[in-house]
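Q: Convert this sequence to C-alpha cells.
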Amino acid sequence: MAFPVGPIHIFPYRVLLPLIWLFFLGEVVLRSGKITITYVKGVRAYLQFLLIWLSYAFFTIVWALDKIAAIREIIFLFMGVSIIFFVVYFLSDEAGLWNLYKLWILLLIILLPVALWEISTGNHLRVSGLYEYQPRKALDIYAKFMPSTVFRNPNDFATFLALSVPFVFTWMRYARTAIMRIAALGVLLITLYVLLMTYSRVNYIAVLLEFAFFLLIILRLKGKIRFAVSLGFLGLFFVAVKPGIIDRVLGLFVEQMTSFTTPYSLYSGSVFVRINLIRNSLIFLLRTFGFGVGAGNAEYWMEHFSVYDTRGILNVHNWWSEIMVNFGLLIFVGYILFYIGLVRNIYRTYRLSCSDLHDRIICETLLLSLIGFFVASIGSSSIMTLRPQWFLFAFALAFLNYSRNKALVGSLK
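A:
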C-alpha cells in the first residue's frame, strides 16, 4: 500500500529497507568490519550471481540510451536483491522460516475479502490502476470487476495468487484437524475463484503446472488414488449443494483458455502482441551484440526501434525476455542456471533430508511455487517491481541455506 505525500507516494517497505541496511551496517561496524559469512554460506554461489547481476546492471548505464530508466531499474533491482540478502542473513532457523510461511498465508487471507468486494461491487482501492477506470466499450465492463487489491493491476495480483496456491494447498494437505483442513479448503477454493476472475490465463496455466507437478512427481501411487477420490467427492458435493456451479466455472475457464488457440488470436489481441514483443526483443539483443540494451531500456527501444507492431504496448510482458533484452545473454544464462539450480536443490532437499514436518511443508510449498513461477512470471507486464517474486526467492534461498547448514551441523556431530 502506498501513502501519498505531496507529489510522491511512500511505500512502507521502501522506508523499512534503508532502516534495515542501517541496522546491518551498524552490526558490521560493531564487528570491526566483519560480516558473518557463515550465515549465508549454504547459498553463497546464488548470492554471488545476484551481486554480479547488480554490478552488470550498473555497468550497462554506459550504453543505455535512457539513463533515467536505467537508474530506476537498478534501484528496483537493488531493492529486490536486498530483500533476498536480508531474509537469508537474518532468517537462519526453523522458527523464522515457519513464521514467514504463516505470514504469507495470512497476507493472502487478508487480501481475499478485498478481492471479493472488488468482484461484487466494481470498486477498487486507490492504489489500483482500476480505481478510476471507465469502460469505453460494452465488453470492457468486465475489467471493472476484476480484482487487483493492493496491486497495480489484476495480472500482478493473479501472479501473487498463482504463487500463493501452493501455500494454501500444503496447509490443507498437512492440517492436523478436520476443522483446519476444511478452513484451508475454503481458502483454497476462494483463491482459485478469485484467480479465475482476474482473467489471467497465463496464471491459470501456472496453477495447472503446479498441480501437475504435485500429482506426477511428488505424490506416490496411493496418494494419487486418494487425491483422485477426494477430488471426485468434492465435485459431487458441489453438484449436490449448488447444481450448475461446476459447469459455469469450467465454462468460463474453457472459454478463456481456448482464446489461446484460436486462429484469430494469432494475428491480433494479446497473443499477437506478446509474440511481436518477443520478436522485437530478439532483434534488439542482436543489435547490441548480446550485451543487452541496458537496464530498464527495453521500453525505450520498443518505442523507437520496433520492427514488429506491438499495438502501442512497450513493456516486454515476459520476465525471461525482459532479463535477456535488458541485461544480455550472460545475465540471462546465469539467471536460468540460478533458477534451475534452486529448483533442483530444493527438490533434492525434499527427497533426501526433509524429515521434520515443518521442513517438509515449507520445502514442498516452495518447490511447487517455484515451478509455477516459470509460467506465472510472464503474466505481468513486468515483475521487476513485483515484491512477491523477490520474497519467494528470498524464502527459497533462506530455506536452502538453513537446510544445508543444518545438514552440516548434523554431519559434524
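Confidence is low (pLDDT under 50) at residues 262-268.
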